[in-house]
Amino acid sequence: MNRSSAQNLNHMSHDTHHHDHHIDASKEKLTTMGHHHLDTTMKMYFHAGTTETILFESWTTPSITIFICSLIFIFILGILYEGLREIRQYLDETRLIERPIISKEGNETELERMNTELFESAIRTGKKIRPQFPERILHSVLYAVHLILGYSLMLIAMTMNVYLFFAIIFGIGTGHLLYAWCRTISLAKKNQRST
Q1: Is 0.70 topped by the overall pTM?
Q2: Per-domain boundaries in the chain
Q3: What pLDDT, in 10s, does the model give residues 117-154?
Q4: HSE-up of residue 149 (Cα within 13 Å, Cβ side)
Q5: Cβ–Cβ < 8 Å for 95, 135
């Protein structure tokens, strides 16, 4: 190897080393920026931080105030999720009471008898009436909104943030408590009227 080719090789090695040093420095700078501002890496374990990106890139919680507001909003979403489930169930029960499933021939099968025995006011005879088109649209819209809300809550839980997770659980639990309590009161009032 002659002297000029050895110098060129040494110079190229120095340039490569210098270039690698810049790449390492820029990686370190990005990592440092991430820890001081918003940590953009998704943690795949439960953690208790207050800096999160929730559902959308624009929904971030850089301050504790925004994080607490997000917790309250997610708690309310949990209550609404349970409320939608109760509304859908109420509409289905109301439809069965108003239009019981009775066979056309007049002889009931065991399944039909079980269906109508659940509701005292449903022991009437008549033809099975299918839900009307507007009623089916309402049920479909409520079902779609319920699914969207459910999957959104699931994705929020997948941030693996303990605070957000418990906001969902407590919201759904509170919703169940409220709506089950309201249902119990309305059933008691109906029973008082019928006696």
Answers
A1: no
A2: 47-99+136-194
A3: 444 444 444 445 567 888 889 999 999 999 999 999 99
A4: 22
A5: yes
